[in-house]
Write a structure and sequence with these properties.
Elements lengths: L6 H23 L14 E6 L3 H10 L8 E9 L3 H15 L4 E3 L6 E4 L2 E6 L12 H16 L18 E4 L3 H15 L10 E5 L10 H9 L4 E4 L12 E5 L2 E4 L2 E4 L8
Parallel strand pairs: 1-2, 1-6, 2-5, 6-7, 7-8, 8-9
Antiparallel strand pairs: 3-4, 4-5, 9-10, 10-11
Function: Involved in protein N-glycosylation. Essential for the second step of the dolichol-linked oligosaccharide pathway. Anchors the catalytic subunit ALG13 to the ER.
Subcellular location: Endoplasmic reticulum membrane; Nucleus membrane
GO molecular function: N-acetylglucosaminyldiphosphodolichol N-acetylglucosaminyltransferase activity
């Protein structure tokens, strides 16, 4: 019996082709499947998610040896209403560079800039005691803001010959906003806005407080494969498979294949 191209069959064939293309595109851009990046010597742009309170304190402790020669431009992303993290980021940069001047963007109240850095404010993904049924809406607003700030079209000032565009590296340690940043990076890679092989490498660091297992954020990031490097701070957090998961301890990380210094993760002392 000859094949008859009925509307239903054509629709099913088109749907199958679309699903296959979609699946292969996801496999091609998943951070957990991308090859390790070679050592980078050119100036880079790092985006650091500050999640408020303990998350912020842990993150600033981890990046205290950040290389200014390598990461010439630094973006700190904070949630709305989190003045603590904004002030801590300014204090951290003051200690890092010795420059105290910061200015607010007259055209965008969500942006504060200083010498070699910027602080971006996004809507909070979920507030304390916020009803769960409203969380999807606030999370969507946060995601849309993350998409805008991660895009290469977001204006950033030139630093001599270097003009920072989209981040080369994203570093987060567990807040809900951090998960949405990683999802935003994935979406932008899917549509080709970010380079699928080189753009926005993602590193996730689990909180030191997670002794017996991963946080909800960690389980989402690991389950979806959103990060090239997944660091835990207690050995039992490595689980059975290992994979991209590594053990972080005092500025070094260890996996099942041995140890490597902090420079192998995001920068160098």
């Amino acid at each position: 019996m000859a094949f008859e191209p009925t509307p239903l069959r054509l629709a099913l064939a088109a749907l199958l082709l679309l699903a296959t293309t979609f699946f292969h595109r996801i496999l091609a851009i998943l951070p957990s499947r991308r090859p390790p990046a070679p050592p980078r010597t050119s100036p880079s742009h790092i985006l650091i998610v500050l999640g408020s309170g303990g998350h912020t304190a842990e993150m600033l402790s981890m990046i205290r040896y950040l290389s200014l020669e390598r990461y010439i431009y630094r973006t700190y992303l904070v949630s709305s209403g989190d003045a603590f993290s904004t002030l801590k980021a300014i204090d951290f940069e003051r200690g890092l560079t010795g420059v105290e001047t910061t200015t607010a963007d007259e055209k965008n109240t969500e942006v504060v800039r200083g010498e070699g850095f910027e602080i971006l404010t996004v809507p909070r993904a979920r507030r304390i005691h916020q009803p769960l049924y409203t969380a999807p809406l606030t999370s969507l607003l946060c995601l849309l803001s993350c998409l805008r700030f991660l895009s290469p079209t977001h204006p950033r000032p030139k630093l001599g010959p270097y003009h920072p565009t989209a981040p080369d590296l994203i570093l987060t340690n567990g807040p809900a906003t951090g998960v949405l940043v990683l999802i935003a990076a994935f979406v932008l890679r899917f549509f080709g806005v970010l380079n699928a092989q080189k753009g926005a490498r993602c590193v996730y660091v689990e909180s030191w407080a997670r002794v017996g297992g991963l946080s909800l954020s960690g389980r989402i990031v690991e389950g979806l494969g959103l990060a090239e490097r997944f660091l835990v701070q207690w050995e039992r957090g490595l689980g059975e498979g290992g994979g991209r998961k590594r053990l972080w301890n005092g500025g070094r990380w260890w996996g099942r294949g041995g140890g490597e210094g902090v420079e192998g993760v995001f920068g160098g002392r």
